[in-house]
């Protein structure tokens, strides 16, 4: 199709499309991080003009550490909603992240039985629950003298 539209341009469609997709995703990440990133309060999305809005002080502070975002201070990004539908699921935000303590607390709240796991395992193998290494015969594991 690109060949028909621009017959003498010698352009390949696939690399140009892939390049455009990478550029759109990069721009979307910049806008998405401004609107949803941690410690980025003060930014909003203007649905009518399709651009990021904020007070000048918020912009100036953010641009000190995020120079790439400057292009969106006065420029619309009309594909933001569509690209959010495509890429937002793959973007880790930490919103539902849990620490180990959270998981342990959740297990305790759910009353998951964990006290008899060893006993159940020993019953499965038809052995007693109170077996210790002191009671076991480990003489077969001791080094044997050389017979040479």
Automatic annotation (TrEMBL):
Query: Residue ranges of the Myb/SANT-like domain?
Result: 12-62
Region (Disordered) location: 126-148
Protein species of origin? Gossypium hirsutum (Upland cotton)
Give residue spans, biased composition: Acidic residues. 126-137
* Coiled coil location: none
Tell me the lineage of the source organism: Eukaryota, Viridiplantae, Streptophyta, Embryophyta, Tracheophyta
Q: What is the protein name given in its UniProt record?
A: Myb/SANT-like domain-containing protein
């Amino acid at each position: 199709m690109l060949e028909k539209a621009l017959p003498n341009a010698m352009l390949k469609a696939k690399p140009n499309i892939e390049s455009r997709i990478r550029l759109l995703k990069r721009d979307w990440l910049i806008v998405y991080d401004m609107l949803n990133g941690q410690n980025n309060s003060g930014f909003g999305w203007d649905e009518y003009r399709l651009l990021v809005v904020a007070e000048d002080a918020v912009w100036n502070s953010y641009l000190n550490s995020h120079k790439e975002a400057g292009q969106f201070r006065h420029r619309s990004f009309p594909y933001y909603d569509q690209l959010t539908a495509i890429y937002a699921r793959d973007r880790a935000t930490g919103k539902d992240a849990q620490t180990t303590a959270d998981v342990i607390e959740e297990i305790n709240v759910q009353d998951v039985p964990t006290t008899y796991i060893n006993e159940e395992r020993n019953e499965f193998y038809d052995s007693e629950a109170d077996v210790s290494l002191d009671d076991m015969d480990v003489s077969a594991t001791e080094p044997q003298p050389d017979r040479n």
